[in-house]
Amino acid sequence: MTRKSDLPVKTCARCGRPFTWRRKWARVWDEVRYCSDRCRGARNGVTKHGNYRNDGSAGIGEFSGK
Fold this sequence. Notes:
The protein has a domain at 4-41. It has a two-stranded antiparallel ribbon with strand order 1-2. A hairpin with a 6-residue loop joins strand 1 and strand 2 (18-20). By secondary structure, it is mostly loops. The protein has one helix spanning 37-41, and strands at residues 9-11, 18-20.
């Protein structure tokens, strides 16, 4: 059995956090860029770990104050 510490690790292209290999990614590991569906879907939108977009506008469900 392989220990989790022995599995390959990548850095998420969206949030920058490290994530490890998963069995469901075995055939496409070279193509995997994001740690989750949320990061993949938020490529240019609301950040995974914050409420605002890169352009400073309010995210989904947030009050813009304007």
